[in-house]
Amino acid sequence: MPFRVETVQSAFPGRAILHFERVASTMIEATGLLPGAVVIADEQTSGRGRHGHSWHSEPESGLYVSMVLDAPLDPVLTLALGLATAEAIARETDLRCDLRWPNDVMIGEKKVAGILVQLAGANAIAGIGINVNHNSFPAELEREATSLSIAGGSRYSREVLLIALLRSVESYCAMLQKGGKQAILRQFTQVSSYVEGKRVRVASMEGVTAGLDESGFLRLRKIDGLIELILAGGVRPI
Ligand code: BTN
């Protein structure tokens, strides 16, 4: 079913909410728009993931959205967006998500949503992809991806989810603006099973996670006992 943008627009009357049936990527459409603008697409032909990966964007099954934020790029911002996504999912479904640092949203061992933050001029653009009503995934993603529908056994309204997501992103960004970095680091540490005491591999390193530093980077205690600061993702359990 095509996305009913009027439902979302009426919940946020003052906000520019642009809906497209098909775009290359909502990140491209959002570039140059003013803070507050939201771009949503039913389908992306070149959905972008982190580290140059693509984002599987099955038509009318997922939430593919980019928001222009009135916030600078900051590692804690990406953690806040993961918390906001997990909170929106919890509010509208019975599902509880884990967060794989820095911002993969997981159900069990499988990824249900991903976040890409890019800088465009003075503003950060948050790109959020949630697998909502997918029944299956291409063979190469099957082992690592899930959808709310597969995990929860029912279908979910993308409009209702987007409304919840916009509200939770607003509230986490406000928290950050008011100097709530520590609160976000604390919440992330509580919600994520990856932050402390998890045996993981990151690139060629192995170790046990040992918390976040004050900037939001992940501390890894290696086998030799030394602490390595992990600045970018690719964390996998072992
Ligand atoms: C990742 O986990 O690798 C990040 C995935 C981000 C996907 C979203 S979908 C909406 C927005 N448009 C894109 O092209 N990518 C992001």
Care to give the gist of this entry?
29% of the residues lie in helices and 32% in strands. The radius of gyration is 17 Å and the shape is globular. Biotin binds next to helix 2, strand 3, strand 6 and strand 7.
Structural commentary:
The chain has helices at residues 5-11, 26-30, 75-92, 139-142, 148-152, 158-177, 181-191; strands spanning 17-23, 38-44, 62-69, 98-100, 104-107, 110-120, 123-131, 196-202, 205-212, 218-222, 227-230, 235-237. By secondary structure, it is α+β, with helices and mostly antiparallel strands. The strands form two sheets. A seven-stranded mixed beta sheet has the order 1-2-3-7-6-5-4. It is globular and about 55 Å long. The chain binds biotin (BTN). Residues 25-27, 44, 47-50, 53, 55, 64-66, 104, 114-116, 127-129 line the site of biotin. Biotin (BTN) binds at residues 25-27, 44, 47-50, 53, 55, 64-66, 104, 114-116, 127-129.
